[in-house]
Amino acid sequence: MNVALADRAQRAAKPPQHLADLSEPERDSWAESLGLPRMRARQTARHYFGKLERTASCMTDLPAAGRDELVATLLPPLLTRARQISADGGRTVKTLYHLTGGAAVETVLMAYPDRITLCVSSQAGCGMGCPFCATGKLGLVRNLSAAEILEQVRLAARACQGGIFGGQKRLTNVVFMGMGEPLANYKALTRAIAGIAGQGGSGFGLSARNVTVSTCGLVEPMDRLAGEGRPVRLALSLHAPDDPARDGLVPINRRYGVERTLAAAYRYYEATGRRVSIEYALIRDINDQAWRATQLAAKLCQYGTGWVHVNPIPLNPVPGSIWTASRPSVQEEFLRRLAAAGLSVTLRDTRGADIDGACGQLAAKEVVRTNG
């Protein structure tokens, strides 16, 4: 095996089993298999989820004898912080973590006047191959476990409580818009959502309505998620209203097509009652033409206007990319045409442009650094 392949194999190493990967009955069984009373797993879970804690010395309700070993077994370390940088006057904090084996993932924590939102990663790298995306250029290294996703949330929630934005504050929103395609890691995604929204010793207690799952349009998993019964919001990364353009920007479109993808998004709205967000990165001279705004409006309005909210996004260029953001006048006309059709439209607030804000940029730099 050559050095590059060996390095990739190491980075793809699976994480150790963690309490947060398991349902409560599974935790009980695991504790019993370790020769422990069931209550030990439940006590540890209450510390992890309820108190955001994984330090053994803080878990004084556990027997002192063997406490360190118990916590190390049930709550093994999953993420190691490699780098953290801030922008926007300290209101945006981006963190690069190393996973077991050394693969890198990113989170972005963003403070707004009425909420604090965490953008989490669901995969190390991504296999969808969207050419304008920094993560897509990395390829897929591996799926994250549910516990690795939940550990991102726990660390961010602790940082909020610890005053990262001044004073004790609470994490309110989680968006699966970081590295990876969440619906391509479906089991871990849904377990993580359950852990985010669960109460007491079963989760962090955030509202499922404050969780957003972004997808480039995997139709069957979209339908499956619609049937899960959790009121999470769906965000569809569309980026073009016509198949020729979207085939080049979002390669999975060659499998599904725009019409079929939008139909699945509308079914999600029908099943959940949650308005779907349409994400649309505005790329200069590629997908930002005024006629495409008109076409996009027509495609969306065939189902009415109340089911959807359109989020045009000024492209955050990836270094070395041939693509860049739309001209301001073109961007304004694009938004005007959507609004004129009766659609709800909000230009996405861009954060962290000065700190490699595009998802995957820090990880890409880390791969370059470690590989020479």
What does this structure look like?
By secondary structure, the chain is an alpha/beta fold. The protein folds into 2 domains: 17-74, DNA polymerase, domain 1, CATH 1.10.150; 80-370, Aldolase class I (TIM Barrel, Alpha-Beta Barrel). Helices cover 38% and strands 18% of the residues. The protein is built from 14 helices and 12 strands. The protein has helices at 3-11, 24-33, 38-50, 67-74, 134-138, 146-161, 186-197, 219-226, 243-249, 253-256, 258-272, 290-301, 328-340, 361-370, and strands at 80-87, 92-98, 104-112, 115-119, 123-125, 140-143, 173-176, 211-215, 233-237, 276-282, 308-314, 344-345. The strands form 2 sheets. The chain has a 10-stranded mixed sheet with strand order 1-2-3-4-7-8-9-10-11-12. The protein has a two-stranded antiparallel ribbon with strand order 5-6. Strand 11 (308-314), helix 13 (328-340) and strand 12 (344-345) form a beta-alpha-beta unit. The two termini are 18 Å apart. The relative contact order is 0.12. Residues 366-372 have low confidence and may be disordered.
Rg over CA atoms, rounded to whole Å, is: 21 Å
- The fold-level CATH name of the largest domain is TIM Barrel
Q: Number of helix segments?
A: 14
Let me know the CATH homologous superfamily of the largest domain.
Answer: Aldolase class I
Percent helix range:
25-40%
Low-confidence stretches: 366-372
Count of beta strands: 12
The CATH architecture category of the largest domain equals: Alpha-Beta Barrel
